[in-house]
Amino acid sequence: MHRSACGTDKGNLRKTNEDSMLCMDSMGFYMVADGVGGHNSGEVASRLAVELMKDLLLSTPPDGVEEQDLPEFFNQCLWHINEEIYKRASAAGENTGMATTAVMLLLRQGKAYIFNVGDSRAYLYRKGELKRITEDHTYVNELLKSGRISEYEAEVHPQRNIITRAFGSEETVMPDFYQFDVAIGDRILLCTDGLYNEVNDEQILELIHEEQDLNKLVLSLIKLACDNGGKDNITVICVET
Fold first, then answer.
1. How far apart are CA 16 and CA 95, in angstroms?
2. Which of 50, 62, 143, 183 has the highest Cβ tally under 10 A?
3. 84, exposed or middle or buried, with CB in 10 Å at 0-12, 13-18, 19+?
4. Which of helix, strand or coil describes residue 241?
């Protein structure tokens, strides 16, 4: 059994919320998407990604997919989502150039399956420790991995928001895939950069460790991000196994 809490906020500076989320407790599936693009295009892209994924899962539930086939099943789902967003982003009109990040979690038979594209993140809290599962698909992270900049320089780099992978930005997209066994008491956190750009890992760990109520935890994380600046939209999903 697992339980979850989900929340989103436009933050202090943005006029609209271009984040979208999907919480399907009965299926053990959760998704956070952060749209990018001019006007309301980001909102359109993230909402489209979430709606398409929901439709795909309802029409072909992953419960009927063998474990070894799950990566390919989700790759096909994500290929379809990328194709649809790319078509709309490539067409003339107000949605030209729109794209979205996404991070997804499926819980099934004691295992967690995580897929991500972009810089929305998944964290695992286990026995008092917080571990980031996903890797940011950003220009600055590439600089960091190559040793050209330090951790501190990455945090303050003026181009830290440049995304190198997103749904809709190119004809094809390659998601990262992670799989691990879950234990009783694990908490998996999905979030957009509006959270972790304002709340560091130590602060996230402290709140997760102290707050037992998942709904209060999600609200507290969002409030802290707003209190620390709230310069972007903030979306948080926390799932406890």
1. 16
2. 50
3. middle
4. coil
* Chain centroid offset of residue 115 CA: 9
Report CA Rg, the chain.
Answer: 17
Looking at residue 38, its pLDDT comes to: 61
CA dist., res. 183 & res. 226, Å (int) = 32
Closest CA to 164 of 117, 132, 223, 104: 117
pLDDT in tens, 38-88: 666 899 999 999 999 999 999 999 999 999 999 999 999 999 999 999 999
Distance of CA 239 to the CA centre of its chain: 13
CB-based contacts of 12, cutoff 8 Å, min separation 6: 226, 229, 230, 231
Domains identified in the chain and CATH numbers: 3-240 (3.60.40.10)
- Cβ–Cβ under 8 Å, residues 167 and 173: yes
Are 35 and 42 within 8 A, CB to CB?
yes
Q: Which amino acid is at 45?
A: A
Q: How far apart are CA 230 and CA 65, in angstroms?
A: 40
Residue reference for tokens 């398409």: 52
Exposure class string for 98-120: b at 16+ Cβ within 10 A, else e: bbbbbbbbbbbeeebbbbbbbbb
Residue 138: φ, ψ to 5°? -135, 160
* Displacement of CA 82 from its chain's centroid (Å): 15
